[in-house]
Amino acid sequence: MSSQLPPEGTPGAEEHETDGTPVSADAADAPAHEETAVEETAVEETAVGTAPKPGRAKRILKATGLTLALPGAAVVAGSGYVAVKSLTASPDNSPEHEASKDEYLDALAGTTSSGEAPNVLLVYYDDLGYGDLGFMGETPIKTPNIDRLAENGVVLTNYHSPSAVCTPSRAAMLTGRLAPRAAVPDVLFPTDSPISVMNRMSGSFGLTQAEITIPDVLQSSGYQTGMIGKWHIGDTEGSLPNDFGFDSFLGSRYSNDMTPFKIYQDDEVLLETVDQTELDALYTDAAVDFVADAADSDDPFFLYFAHNFPHEPLFAAEENEGRSDAGLYGDIVEGLDDGIGRIVDELEATGQLDNTIIMITSDNGPWYQGDAGDHRGRKGLINEGGMLVPFMVHWPAGLEGGRTLDTMTMGTDILPTLLDWLDIDAPTDRVLDGTSMAPLLAGTSEQVGEHYYYYAGKKLIAVSDGRYKYYAKHPYLYGTSDLTFTVAQPKGPWLFDLEADPSESYDVSAKHPEIAERLKAELERRNAEMAENPRGWVS
């Protein structure tokens, strides 16, 4: 069973057009007899009026021709600009930092001790909502396998994805650097798609080789590294999974609503046509096999299990149809939970479970379906509902389980945390936006980062100190259910107390002007820092 929607990042509603100007559906569908009446009146007025003089008629014709020509000229000029821009734009490859990356990775050889370093399983679901898993609260979706891990692990109830949309979230999580620093601030489209012109125009390309990723670090330090699932941070040479430290890759290069949607085995197409009702089984089988093979090796493993689901369109395996009280979406999530059960069973059967770090989270908030919790906004919006997502970590050999923490954290904190746990030095030639969660998870600290930043593309819209969240003046979309389009209105600045008001319903800037001013100053400081050094290079 499946559901179909417009591709991610494209308008979902159609617009009627008149002379190139978008209008509402009601206006476009006005009765034809009204237009006819206007035309007849114009004819009558011309017939009874005085005929224009020849000189005046020539001037009218020239003016009319010029008026008609201007839009055409503008279109030609605009098209020319787009063509030149898209042909001349290129990514910031930063070759000097690519060289320093190589030096850093070379120095990591042998830094993990065989048989002692923990395995790492990082599960990154696509568009899974804050309230879609049982351990996060009441839900009609049953996820007993993930809930069991959470019960014996540590749950973070205030964990945020690094972006409200997928490409920037994945780039930021894997590099520990927010997407504008990693130079991947927008959702990427297939390079052979016409819509990819927007990426080139905005300067958004795939992740460049100057960036250091989690698999880069772990592969260089002696880990077997594999990825299964959705990549979506580049589809050209130098920006593919195997270019960033993965020994093996099985999955898609894009979201499951983009074309061409193919399944790759490393750089080769494995499935040209994909039956997405069978996708979960394909991924889970591959993950179980990866874990089984890793048991025969003396080296630790890193598996990035970045499932395409429950991103829309929705597809459930035939045997899962109708099983959930949450409809098709619930059928899919319960099937994902079954998959985690199979992977954990294999870890346990091969004696690897206790020393495997398992992290389960989502790339952003839910899209059209899914539970964002009691929070404002959904996917695509930097409100809490767009970025506050479920998170749990299970590691019996390294963490005391059975705990729930409400300290604010973000996906950029994962890389520094792994470096901390593995006693690996961070690179010194670049700024990392994340901070290690290891002290928090060990119970020796109550704070991780001092501030967290909410970007939409390259624009910094909000900043939080963990309790208060300050919004600069920003475009806010408002519309009614009967409209086929909406208009952004400038709103803010706002200040929300997330502790007292997690749904961001009440602006308290007038009550706490000093806090609003402090966070405003931090937002301005960050903007100035990014303007001076957008990539965060230190040396």
Question: Could you please describe the fold and organization of this structure?
Answer:
α10 runs parallel beside α11 (327-349). The protein starts with 15 loop residues before the first strand and ends in a 7-residue tail after the last helix. The protein is of the alpha/beta class and 539 residues long. The radius of gyration is 27 Å and the shape is globular. It contains 15 helices and 20 strands.
Key features of this structure:
ten-stranded mixed beta sheet, 539 residues, four-stranded antiparallel beta sheet, 33% helix
What is the terminal-to-terminal distance? 53 Å
Number of helices: 15
Mean pLDDT: 87
The total beta strand count reads 20
Shape: globular
Largest beta sheet: strand ordering: 9-8-7-6-10-3-11-12-4-13
Strand content: 15-25%
The helical percent reads: 25-40%
Q: Main beta sheet: strand number and arrangement?
A: 10 strands, mixed
Radius of gyration: 27 Å
The low-confidence runs, each spanning 5 or more residues with pLDDT under 50, are: 10-52, 73-79, 81-87
What structural category characterises the helix and strand content? alpha/beta
A few lines on this structure:
The chain is of the alpha/beta class and 539 residues long. The chain is built from 15 helices and 20 strands. A ten-stranded mixed beta sheet has the order 9-8-7-6-10-3-11-12-4-13, sandwiched between helices.
SSE topology sketch:
Layout: E1 16-18, E2 21-23, H1 25-28, H2 32-48, H3 54-88, H4 95-106, E3 119-125, H5 144-151, E4 154-156, E5 159-160, H6 166-175, H7 179-182, H8 197-202, H9 214-220, E6 224-230, E7 248-252, E8 263-265, E9 268-271, H10 279-294, E10 301-306, H11 327-349, E11 356-362, H12 384-387, E12 391-394, E13 403-405, E14 409-410, H13 414-421, H14 438-442, E15 452-456, E16 459-464, E17 468-471, E18 474-478, E19 487-491, E20 494-497, H15 513-532
Parallel strand pairs: 3-10, 3-11, 4-13, 5-14, 6-7, 6-10
Antiparallel strand pairs: 1-2, 4-12, 7-8, 8-9, 11-12, 15-16, 16-17, 17-20, 18-19
